User: Fold this.
Amino acid sequence: MSGITSLCGRSLVDGAAVGPLLYADVGLSFWGGVDPFSGEVIDRHHPLSGECLAGRVLAIPSGRGSCTGSSVLMELISNGHAPAALVLAEADEILTLGVLVAQTLFERSLPVLCIGSEAFAGLQRKAFASVNGTHLSLFDTAPDYTATTSFSDTPTADPGTEIELTEHDRALLDGSYGKAAQVAMQIVLRMAQLQGAAQLIDITQAHIDGCIYTGPASLRFAQQLVEWGARVRVPTTLNSISVDQRRWRELGIDPVLGVPASALGDAYMAMGAQLSFTCAPYLLDSAPKEGEQIVWAESNAVVYANSVLGARTLKYPDYLDICIALTGRAPLIGCHLESQRKARLHVQVPQLADLDDSFYPLLGYHIGALAGSRIPLVSGLEHHHPDRDDLKAFGAAFATTSAAPLFHIAGVTPEALNPAQVLDQALAVITINVQDLLLSWQELNSARDSRVDVVSLGNPHFSLTEFAHLARLCQGRHRHPDVVLAITCGRAVLEQAREAGHIAVLEAFGVTLVTDTCWCMLGEPVIPPSARNLMTNSGKYAHYAPGLVGRKVHFASLAECVDAACSATASGRLPLWLQTAASLENYAHV
Assistant:
């Protein structure tokens, strides 16, 4: 057989598999990017869009985007639509954790191999691959398929031998606190070992992303923990679930989704978690303080906590979040350490004027793609004074295209008020080109006609100040009868907005209010079956919606969204700041 190449790497999950090689040089978010029931890549911005992962050796640099990727991968392993193996350029905790949980609970797995960036670049033109432990073989033509996928159900080393354990840690591990805490500690230690942690730390609070229903396996996982007597050991909030728990029948949600999705939320509350159901826990009174060691999942919340609040958390995968909440202990690595919070990329934003609220999500989306897994320092925004809503929108879009858990904005975010504090080495400065921003704008605007059927607001969940801004825009106006304008938000913020008088204005305008869930989980009939185009001010949702709900998107400012809700038509105008800057840059090159 000709064209055989052999490589070695680091085995994150042991096993053997062979299959056609599916390669991409762009990271993939399994949540919102892969259908958990079929294994099809549904991220319409990704080079693998439309490909099926089942039975193929998937080679990607890393994951990216949502922490729920671990749940989706576990679901695929459970239902038989998973890749045969994962080959990564760099270790990815979200995807690896999904495999480990499937291995622990369902005794099904797949090999995960990390080979480094240099070796990864050489995979592009190979057609088939075989993974066996730490070894990767590449073939130009189909190899012998008599080998079948297999895996080891035992860690390659004792998960506790290389990590400093306290007496309490050992009590958790030997079952003194019950079966659920014991299994949770086993998973925490296995991940800590893979991450290279030397010890664990106490955490003060947790935010659980695993309460999103991705299929039967996600519910089975939570209910198994409840049966084992699981109880959280620290204050714990819950992310958005997949339905509005109080109103899903009223909203016309199919019981096939409504019943198990609601039951999943109940299961986590049975473990002692609070009924918060929001993807924006930083809007709650329990938001952490600067320097506080926490465990949050949900990508936008992680990025906001680290960057804007100055708290300390990793981008924790679904299921590792609840395991840490059940033990109160987390690996001391990454952004928990001051030394690991430094910038690895310096980005200069061009001078722009007349900014509106569409600027920050677009910029976050663009910089996230530039950053990859690197923490960026962004300069050039010091005099624009972005507020908390601007930073929320920036962070959510950044977390969509980046694997990094943190960003710094010079003169704005707490650790970069003096930018020198986040630089431990001289970094080359990348200056953003306005034409590149224009390309990102065009990427987010996938709709090809001006029609608007649905205006989608609240991804991440609306804040009280966003409700106030929207009420001012809607005062004395009415939405077009053919347009749905829906807002997702947390229950706590909804009541604050009602007390402030904003909800009465919005109900007079004709909005639909949805709590507990968010747009990444909403579909028909909240989105009417006849709807063709959506409009949103969320960079995150503009990216995910074409794959999640099969509709095209207009992306624009909040004011443009309200105008479209009144006219059922998108203006198609570039924002003034982008229009002016693009014109000036074109003129300069003439």
